[in-house]
Amino acid sequence: MSNLSSSIPPLSRQTAPTLTDHNIRLEPLTQAHADDLAQACQDGELWQPVITAVPSPDKMQDYIHTATEMVDRVAFAVVDTATNKAIGSTSFYAIRPEIKRLSIGYTWYAKSYWRTHVNTVCKLMLLSYAFDELGYLTVGWRTDIANLNSQRAIERLGAKKDGVIRGDRIRQDGTITDSVFYSMTAEEWPQAKAKLEDKLQHYDR
Questions:
Q1: 113: closest CA among 143, 146, 142, 90?
Q2: What are the backbone angles phi and psi of residue 128, rounded to the nearest 5°?
Q3: What is the pLDDT of residues 128-173, one digit of tens each?
Q4: What predicted TM-score, i.e. pTM, was given to this entire model?
């Protein structure tokens, strides 16, 4: 059994890292990113599907305010270093240092960055930080039961499906729906890390 009493480095808005790899930078989300993100979410009209939680352009400042005020969430802007513009966002959330568990979510990118290296490198940086730097034991994900694209993306990371929680979330249109939960453990991470690194090499070719 793991020793839950051992100390781990704190993770909060005040201690949030800046992570950079493969021309993508994750930096703490602030209102300075609002204009870039308002443009990014218009690339694909990302706020339209009810199964996602991407804000409309006029709600971006409110979205950032909520993200940065949540006590158990560390939100990042995803920045393309080639343009120095934010092209999406992602977060650590449900951070529970007492059991060394956190989740990754609230993730979205401008549509023109879909099916590129961006999601792979973001997940590699976040998972490496959670497991290798902070020493967390478990990382979780949650997604709408109808969001099959998200489920496939999580499964490609090497996460295991834990199950479905019924009536767990409210969509943007007010309907109540179910969530699919996934997780990855520290023991599973080395194999998943190797696959992510190999995938990035294919993008580089």
A1: 90
A2: -60, -40
A3: 999 999 999 999 999 999 999 899 999 999 999 999 999 999 988 8
A4: 0.92
